[in-house]
Amino acid sequence: MKPLVSIIMGSTSDLKVMEGAAKLLDEMEIPYEVNALSAHRVPEMVVDFAKNAHKRGIKVIIAGAGGAAHLPGVIAALTPLPVVGVPIKSSNSIDGWDSILSILQMPSGIPVATVALDGARNAAILATEILATGDAALFDKMVRFKADLASKIDKANRELAGIKMPFKTN
Description:
Blueprint: E1 5-9, H1 15-28, E2 32-36, H2 43-52, E3 60-66, H3 71-78, E4 83-88, H4 97-104, E5 113-114, H5 120-132, H6 136-161
Parallel strand pairs: 1-2, 1-3, 3-4, 4-5
């Protein structure tokens, strides 16, 4: 089984967050790989990875990073593949804002789709949606996934309807 998605993180301290992406990809039965790469500590490895990922069959890269969070942008600059960035609130982060802005504010021509702080699950959902544009079976899985989300809201509203409060009108 060859990976279609690559989950990359700046260090293994980011694994707790990035596991959210892996779990969603497992649910969708999408093969993926997980690696640690640092734009600052091993820049040559990052260049090699980014320039060759598409040659190995990777279709989407999910890159998480905290602090200065250069990893997603560096990868996006070097690959023709879509990159989904996950800003991570790390131990050296300024409430996560440094990570968010480092990933979000990319120059024209070097886009990184950026999800919420610690939003690795959403990154995997976006990667799945990208892959689903060319895969009918995966597209059907995404349709069911979204329908399940909607059914949870329907259930919540039925439960809320049963709650009685003095001035509640519904």
